Amino acid sequence: MDVVLIAAVVVVGVLGGLNLLLMLAVLRRLREYDDTWARSGMDNLAQRRFLPDAGTRVADFTITTLDGAEIALRDPAGVSGVDGPLLVAFFATGCPACHDELPRFVQYAATAPGGRERHLAVVSGAPDEVADVVEAVSPVARVVVEPDEGPVTTAFGVRRWPLFVLLGQDGTILAGVGGVSALERQAVSV
């Protein structure tokens, strides 16, 4: 009887060890696939579902930026005579990925065509929590602070943060991406 019990424990132990090794191999392989997708610029399917589709027209909106400029969908730049898409960046204060992408966005926007007049940063969050984000993006973009369900966030149908959108002069989304590296690739093709 003791021999049968010992044999059963050994078999269960060996099976448990094999299971553990198999699980570690699967996790390593998944990590390799994740790195491959990230290098190719493809977000995972769950993230892509929450990005706006190119060709979608944004709902009408009119907002006033922190520096007093009024921006309306009919004239997305708020400046006459300036051509090219409007770059709209959406950040939320409670979003760790937003804080990771913020310095990359500031660096990209500082050199992107159109300058500050063609860049809009929409910061969602409580007024007492947005100061650091506003301070970072103000030199390179006009800034709007609004709650999570604010007029610009609603007009664009934002369902994830961070979000970077290239908006055509007619209010049509040219590209919507979740990271600055993908934004750089999209901006070249637009």
UniProtKB/TrEMBL annotation:
Q: Pfam families of this UniProt entry?
A: AhpC-TSA (PF00578)
Q: Where are the transmembrane segments?
A: 6-27
- Keyword check for Transmembrane, yes or no: yes
What InterPro entries does its record include? AhpC/TSA, Thioredoxin-like_sf, Thioredoxin_CS, Thioredoxin_domain, Thioredoxin_ResA/DsbE_sf
Any idea which UniProt keywords this protein has?
Membrane, Transmembrane, Transmembrane helix
Q: Which domain of life is it from?
A: Bacteria
Annotated Thioredoxin domain residues: 52-190
Q: What protein name does the entry list?
A: TlpA family protein disulfide reductase
